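An example makes the point: we let one protein speak, the chain in one-letter code, the fold tokenised, and here it is:
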Amino acid sequence: MSSSLSTRPKTTSNLPVVADVKAAWHTLTIAQTLVQLETDENKGLTDRQVIDRQQEFGANELVAATSRQWWQILLEQFTNIMLVMLMVVALVSGIFDFMEIQAGKTTGLPFKDTIAILSIVILNGLLGYFQESRAEQALAALKRMAAPKVRVLRDSKISEIEGIEVVPGDVIYLEAGNQLAADARLLESVQLQIRESALTGEATASSKTAETELATETPLGDRINLAYQGTEITTGRGVAVVTATGMNTELGKIAALLQGVKNQPTSLQQRLNHLGNVLVGGALIIVALTIIGGMLPDLLRGSFNLTTLKELVKTSLSVAVAVVPEGLPAVITITLAMGTQRMVKRQALIRKLPAVETLGGVTIICSDKTGTLTQNKMVVQQVATLTAEYQIGGDGYIPNGEFQLNGKSVEPLADPALKGLLWGYALCNDAVLQYIDDQWQILGDPTEGALLVLAHKAGIEATAENYPRVREYPFDSDRQRMSVICEQSPYYLLFAKGSPESILDRSTHTLIADRYVELTEIDRQTIRAQNARLASQGLRVLGFAYRYFSHLPDADSAESELIWVGLVGMLDAPRPEVRAAVATCKTAGIRTMMITGDHPITARAIATDLGIAPADSQVVSGNEIAQMDDVTLGQTIDRVSVYARVAPEHKLRIVKALQQQGELVAMTGDGVNDAPALKQADIGVAMGITGTDVSKEASDMVLLDDNFTSIVAAVEEGRIVYTNIRRFIKYILGSNIGEILTIAAAPLMGLGGVPLSPLQILWMNLVTDGVPALALALEPGDSNVMQREPFQPNESIFARGLGGYIIRIGLVFAIVTIGLMKWAFDRTHSVDYPGDPDTWKTIVFTTLCIVQMGHALAVRSVNKLVIEINPFSNPLLLWAILGTILLQLAVVYVAPLRSFFGTHPLSLFELGICFGCSLLIFIWIEGEKLFVRWFRSKSRS
């Protein structure tokens, strides 16, 4: 039985607890269902029962879990360890400024360092808030699906109520076009078909019947006696009794799964958190060494100098500001935003910025089948008469395609049996093929649409005017066929289509070379073998027959003594471009897995066709997954790439199992049933055209063209973005190490002050570092970006030599700059120096800024020299370097800026020294590249 009664809360209601709470609704007869729900098929619930059940089960709505408030999200942004350190620096700097004001020693604008630092803290906090504060709308989308009006029978009266008022036991009426407001067991069904693709993933509407009891293990998509909340009735009508409402429905279970999926930090966020911890930890060590080293001489002499301690603390403040790359969050955000713009041009809409980088590390793509790998359009691929089997070409609903027999093109109307079959499918059909908005579309059932397109491919365009339909026997789940009688004076022709078994059982003759011959048992065995062969290929198979009448037959004799014509096998055909996309994934070291609600045979056929799995590969069903523990499932996913007849919780378990093995998972989907797995996956990819609102809101990325190849394009862009992020982190942190060591060395060298103020360091980190870093984010990708294995999802930001490079280049920066600092200090403190003695600080400041420009040029490539790279492949970098140099010169030579930043004008000789030091470091980096080339060539030889 459904969870609505198996999880009853304690209540004072008079409604008794049922005896068999473990039964499943699809296993019960109608009578058993009505007894369990204590309702009357002809009267419905009484008003008293409705009130009791509303109190017991509550409103028929989906309930949201408690979520964070906006202010909680905002406060969490300021718990970042680097921002906490900056806030402490701002506080201490403010205290020092206040002490100087009290002592009357202040000069210039007070608290400017404190204000500048806090401004950066606030901006970074707001930036993080706006990235994280997008409210989840997946549950709201689910609620919209669950809120239609309902015709209900209560106290023997039929009335229309809001879906929220429905309770278990209500008798409801189903009509074409209605949306189900609750889960229900069918009591009556007349040609009832319900589109359940949002829940099950199947492309075609499911035929429903009331008079059936099913086995307990029957998958959700095969429970033909049940109807589910949020699904849509396409044809027919029915009566049903509500078995579950609200969070106890299948839709509610999906809502619960969605709420149970916690938002995990992306790989980029994890790497940046690790980066922050390393930087702050390193800064604290350097601060401690600086203070201890600076105080040690006095302490060894047995004295304590408060002035020295104060200067060392000021030095520590500068070190703390220098270690934090204040411009990095903004640079990363802008880089990701630019990546999203490039992805939109390639039909991939990014909903969450960190997903851009995460895409680059994807190791597995778990893809739904219907509408993702396939066209979501039924296409006839094979036609089998008793004597021949034809292959049909063409894509989608386009009425063009070649008929082939034994690999050779043939005229379809030359074979009388094939001709009769094609005419029959054109006339025994209620679909309409039309050309709208530059594309062919089907109005009506997709299966009938495929048959109509097949007839059009042969040039048959039968019309009601030429062949008026005089009688119809609609599809019935018991008969498993549909028949029509058309007038062709002086005769009447009956055309019948349906399940091969049903049509064959009613056939007595067949058509061979324009002659009617009696069907023999050998013929029947041949037809059954054809049917089995087509079905084994994952095709949906229909049989066809017809019969002539000289007068209108009665209903009982019409569908008898039919003339068998043949079989058609149709498939929701794969998108033709997906094969190449799957092949590209293999080249890029990305594994593709199919996880679908469709039949295992169909899933294997599509997977084989697309190259996802070999023809003899194992397909695991949802029932098999349900019987596995997590360990067994983890072992299974290593060797199985195709999963069929899966429920939402199965998809979720598969994604979690992959993540536990260290995989970075992208999950594609378009239905409500995909939403929990989309949210759990590292990258949830929803379909923009066929996708439900629920799937889109649960995803990180939406494909605007529903094309699997767009995922591959997005992965390529993601890899480029991640490479560029590493590039400018290398660029920024290399100089920061040099800044930190230079600042820390000053008091140890007895230079009598800090070479850089916190404000000057902020200027370097935001402008002279930040602007070229943004330009580096636009570096074009390497040609082999999709021809290598993905980087390990859990790799550190410092992996693959980045950490060693940062330390090594930082030391080179520091050695050159410290040497320059000593020279500049001695020069400006000589008796014949004409300028201000503090000019040495401006020399150091300017050198550290200018040095970065040469570094920006050199860091464009790991192994190519600057002269080997096309300078105009990234023209923005050239402008950024030129602009940054001009801005730094303005800080040195423009009086208002000079006053604000506390700089002094430099002579041309001193400025030339600054540029010379920059050239030295540029030459060093380029020399490293040459050395690595030489070393590798020697190793190979």
